[in-house]
Amino acid sequence: NTDLIESLDFNYRHNSLDVFGGVYYYRNQMEADIYDAQQNSVEDIWTQESWHKNTQLYNFLNGTFGVNYLLGENHSLGARYDITGYPTYYYDTKIENSVSLNGAYYDFLSNTSHNNYPDWLAHTLNAYYNGKAGNLGIDLNVDYFKNTYTLDSRTEENSQDKDDRIVI
Which pLDDT tens digit goes with each residue over 90-118? Predict the structure, then answer.
C-alpha cells in the first residue's frame, strides 16, 4: 500500500498584520496477519490456535487558519481556528480460534468485527488580546473546543458447537 503525508503551510506579513494557515493530510492503510498458539494447564490442558487478520484505513485531515494584528507598541490581538477530522476511518478484524481440551476437539470460533468512525470532526478556536493600560498588563485568552465522535461497531461471534451472537 501507499501511505501519504502531505502538508501545505503559508504565512503572509504586511506591516502589523500576520495571516497564516495550513493544511495537513495523512493517509494510512494497514493489513496484518497474525498466528498465535497457547496452552494453559490447570487441571485440564486447554490448547488454542488463533489466526488474526486486521485491516485498517484512515485519512486524517487538519486545517489551520489564523490572524495576528499589532495595534501598537502595547496592544496585539489575534485568533486561530483549527479543524481536524477523519474523512475515512475504519478497521476490520477477523479472528478464528481452534480450541481443544486435553488433546480432543472442543470448538472452532470465528469472530468478525467491523468498526467505523463516520463522523469524527473537531473544531478548536482561540482568540487572544495582549496589552498594557498604564502599569497594568492584560493577557486575555478565550478558547472553544467541539468534538463530534461516533463509532459504529458490529461484532459477530460464531461458534461451531456453542451459541452464536452479534454484539453491536
Answer: 889 999 999 999 999 999 999 999 988 88
pTM above 0.90, yes or no: no
* Residue pair 146/122 in contact by the 8 Å Cβ criterion: yes
**pLDDT tens sequence across 140-168:** 999 999 998 888 888 898 888 888 888 77
Q: Which amino acid is at 42?
A: V
